[in-house]
C-alpha cells in the first residue's frame, strides 16, 4: 500500500518538475536546425510519422513541443513517467509496445493520423536493441499513407546515462544541432517481405542521419562506450 501511495504521488509530481527544469535547462543552449525543408515537405503531406532513437527522446520532446502530435509511449509502469512528461510538454500520448497493447496502440495512432495529428515514435522501441528500427513504424506508415520523417540531434556537450539505450541529455550552455532527414514514403498494402525491405531502408536512413549529426561535434556516436 505504501509503495502504491508513493508511486501515485511521484507520477503526479516528478514529470511536472522535470518539464519545468527542462524548459530552463535547454533555454541556456544554442540551438541550430538542419533540414527544415524536409520538415516542411512532410507537413505538406498533412501528417507524418516522426521517427527518432530512444536515447534522444527527452530533447526531441522538448524541441517539438509546439507541434500538434501524439507520441507512442510504453504501456509499462515506468512508461507512465514518460507519458506524463510528454503531456506536460503538450503532446497527446498513446500507450503500447510490441508485447503489450501493440495492435490497440496501432489503431489509436492511425486515428490520430486520420485526424491530422503528427505521430512521434522511437525507432528502436521501448526495449531495443538500440539503433535498430522495429517494424511497427513501417506498418503504421504503410496503413496510414503518412511519410516517415527521420529525426536526430547532437550536442557539443552531453551527459549519457548507463541505460540500455544510453539516454542522452545536452548539458547546460551546450550547442545543440537538430536534424530532419528526407521524408520516406512507404507504399500501402505491404506484405511481410515488403515491410522488412522498407524497415531496412528506414533503418539505414535514420542511422546515417544519426552519424551525420554527431560528426558535427567530432564523434561517431552519442556515447563513448
* Coarse morphology: globular
Number of strands: 9
Detail the poorly predicted runs: none
- Domains (count): 1
Largest sheet geometry? 7 strands, mixed
Helix content: 40-55%
Distance between the termini: 40 Å
CATH architecture, by name, is 3-Layer(aba) Sandwich
Mean pLDDT, all residues: 91
CATH fold-level topology: Glycerol-3-phosphate (1)-acyltransferase
Strand order of the largest sheet: 1-9-6-2-5-3-4
Strand percentage: 15-25%
Radius of gyration: 17 Å
Alpha-beta content class: alpha/beta
CATH class: Alpha Beta
N-to-C order of helices and strands: HEHEHEHEHEHEEEEH
Number of helices: 7
Question: Topology of this protein?
Answer:
Blueprint: H1 2-26, E1 30-34, H2 36-44, E2 49-52, H3 57-63, E3 69-73, H4 79-88, E4 92-95, H5 102-114, E5 118-122, H6 136-144, E6 148-155, E7 158-160, E8 168-170, E9 175-180, H7 192-215
Give your account of this protein's structure:
- This protein has 225 residues and is α/β, with parallel strands linked by helices.
- It has a single domain, classed as 3-Layer(aba) Sandwich (Glycerol-3-phosphate (1)-acyltransferase), CATH 3.40.1130.
- 43% of the residues lie in helices and 19% in strands.
- It is built from 7 helices and 9 strands.
- The chain has helices spanning 2-26, 36-44, 57-63, 79-88, 102-114, 136-144, 192-215; strands spanning 30-34, 49-52, 69-73, 92-95, 118-122, 148-155, 158-160, 168-170, 175-180.
- The chain has a 7-stranded mixed beta sheet, with helices on both faces.
- Helix 4 (79-88) links the parallel strand 3 (69-73) and strand 4 (92-95).
- Helix 1 crosses helix 4 and helix 6 (136-144) crosses helix 7.
- The longest helix is centred in the N-terminal third of the chain and has 25 residues, at 2-26.
- The protein is globular.
- The mean pLDDT is 91.
Amino acid at each position: 500500500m505504501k509503495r502504491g501511495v508513493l508511486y501515485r504521488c511521484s507520477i503526479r509530481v516528478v514529470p511536472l518538475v522535470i518539464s519545468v527544469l527542462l524548459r530552463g535547462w535547454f533555454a541556456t543552449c544554442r540551438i541550430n536546425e538542419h533540414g527544415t525543408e524536409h520538415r516542411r515537405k512532410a507537413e505538406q503531406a498533412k501528417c507524418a510519422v516522426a521517427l527518432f532513437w530512444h536515447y534522444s527522446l527527452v530533447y526531441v520532446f522538448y524541441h517539438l513541443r509546439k507541434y500538434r502530435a501524439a507520441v507512442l509511449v510504453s504501456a509499462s509502469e515506468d512508461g507512465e513517467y514518460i507519458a506524463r512528461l510528454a503531456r506536460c510538454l503538450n503532446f497527446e500520448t498513446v500507450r503500447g509496445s510490441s508485447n503489450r497493447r501493440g495492435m490497440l496502440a496501432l489503431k489509436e495512432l492511425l486515428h490520430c493520423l486520420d485526424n491530422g495529428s503528427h505521430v512521434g515514435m522511437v525507432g528502436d522501441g521501448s526495449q531495443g536493441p538500440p539503433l535498430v528500427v522495429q517494424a511497427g513504424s513501417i506498418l503504421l506508415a504503410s496503413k496510414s499513407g503518412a511519410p516517415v520523417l527521420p529525426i536526430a540531434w547532437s550536442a557539443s556537450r552531453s551527459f549519457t546515462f548507463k541505460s540500455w539505450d544510453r539516454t542522452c541529455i545536452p548539458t547546460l550552455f551546450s550547442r545543440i544541432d537538430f536534424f530532419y532527414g528526407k521524408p520516406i514514403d512507404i507504399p500501402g498494402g505491404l506484405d511481410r517481405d515488403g515491410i522488412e525491405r522498407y524497415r531496412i531502408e528506414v533503418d539505414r536512413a535514420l542511422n546515417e542521419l544519426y552519424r551525420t549529426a554527431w560528426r558535427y561535434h567530432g564523434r561517431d556516436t552519442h556515447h563513448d562506450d
